[in-house]
Amino acid sequence: MLAAALIVFREALEAALMIGIIAAATRAIAARGRWISFGVAAGVLGSLVVAGLAGWIAALASGNGQEIFTAAVLATAVAMLAWHNVWMARHGAEMAARARGLGASVVKGEAALSAIALAIALTVLREGSETVLFLQGVAASGNGGALSVLGGGALGLGGGALLGAVIYLGLLRVPLRWFFKVIGWLVLLLAAGMASQLARVLTQADLLPTIADKAWDTSALLPVDSLLGVLLHSLIGYDATPSGVQVAFYCAALVAIFVSMRAVAPRPSQPIAT
Amino acid sequence: MFLDLAVVAIATLAPLAARPALAADSEVALAIKDHRFAPDELKVPAHTKIKLIITNQDATPEEFESYELKREKLIPANSKGILFVGPLAPGRYEFFGEFNQKTARGVIVAE
Questions:
Q1: Are B98 and A7 an interchain contact pair (Cβ–Cβ within 8 Å)?
Q2: What's the complex ipTM?
């Protein structure tokens, strides 16, 4: 039961942390709840579909179907997070005013919200489909322990959701003058971490060279299977022994998104963009 | 863009796959049976890219996972999966089946 709880917890954590951060990021946008719920629901539904098609997907592209599918999912999620962050950078002042309760009207952000709904759906789908397959396998094995495993799964899901709620509530306590800056960096690091994972799956399918198998090794200092390691992996893409190409993708995503955010951000002296 | 990259890469790799493995690649087979890996210790050459062919003979899916190798691949029930690791520095690289961690354990030894 504990093993099952741990597996589901690890899968749920990444999605839950991301949803927590996004929910905080969009606090000043009207109708965010509807879009976030829609993203989660679509992701859960997608998990079931992808789990059902797992055998078919795996056999595509001479056995590399899974990697290409995951890479496409990750690339899209990175792009959506990047777009969201650029949008936030452009509308930062407006959002801050709204969050202070000074905004004249609700901030309209349908485009940004549809981007984050898609990013959430894809992340839930990626983590969820594995969970579905795991639980399906357990159920199919017909052990008497199936019920306890399902109980463990529920426990793991609850644990992940709890941490998502903790990060959401924690972020809301950040003073408003720093709030959007902090959120911007969190989403930026989240996207860079996904870019690093994208590089990893492409090397797994031999579609990219590793450059170096280990750019560094901090596994003795902070193992990636420790609780802190798992947390940092989910939040900022921490890896104890990243390959060279992973580091390259991480840095490239970080710089590209940061520069785009800077480019669109209104100067403090200018009037608020409308 | 990444998709395009992937498609281009596949198009280039597809003819390669039909030919015998390149000298630089080394193929290694691994089976999953009764939630165990067979063999549970694989000797591979160091500094060489390894093509790992994993056959899951069980009726349940398994996920091949390794922190040291940074690999994670789902192998559906009664099917085969391919993944690439390395080139590795000499050493021991543990792996496990995430869905059956108690029994499914193994190690790749690069030398």
A1: yes
A2: 0.85
Which residue in A54, A203, A213 is closest to B89 by CB distance? A213
User: Which domains are present in chain B?
Assistant: 24-110 (2.60.40.420)
SS3 B21: coil
Contacts of A213 in chain B (CB under 8 A): 86-89
What phi, psi does B74 have (nearest 5°)?
-80, 130
Do residues A192 and A198 make contact, with C-beta atoms less than 8 angstroms apart? no
Please give the residue of chain A at the shortest CA–CA distance from B98: A7
pTM more than 0.95: no
Chain A residues with CB under 8 Å of B1 CB are 75
Q: What is the mean pLDDT of each run of 10 residues along chain A (274 residues)?
A: 86 93 89 93 96 90 90 96 91 78 68 91 94 83 72 93 96 92 94 97 95 93 92 94 97 97 76 52
HSE-CB at A271 with a 13 A cutoff on CA atoms is: 1
A215 class by beta-carbon count within 10 Å (0-12 exposed, 13-18 middle, 19+ buried) = middle
Q: What is the 3-state secondary structure (H, E, C) of chain A?
A: CHHHHHHHHHHHHHHHHHHHHHHHHCCCECCHHHHHHHHHHHHHHHHHHHHHCHHHHHHHHHHCHHHHHHHHHHHHHHHHHHHHHHHHHHHHHHHHHHHCCCCCCCECCHHHHHHHHHHHHHHHHHHHHHHHHHHHHHHHHCCCCHHHHHHHHHHHHHHHHHHHHHHHHHHHCCCHHHHHHHHHHHHHHHHHHHHHHHHHHHHHCCCCCCCCCCCCCCCCCCCCCCHHHHHHHHHHCCCCCCCHHHHHHHHHHHHHHHHHHHHHCCCCCCCCCC
Question: Which two tokens mark A206?
Answer: 């031999």
Instruction: Tell me the one-letter amino acid at A158.
Output: G
Contact at CB, B61 and A240, closer than 8 angstroms: no
Which residues of chain B are within 8 Å of residue A140 when distances are taken between CB atoms? 59-60
Q: For residues A171 and A182, what is the distance between their CA atoms, to the nearest angstrom? A: 9
Distance CA A187, CA A86 (A): 11
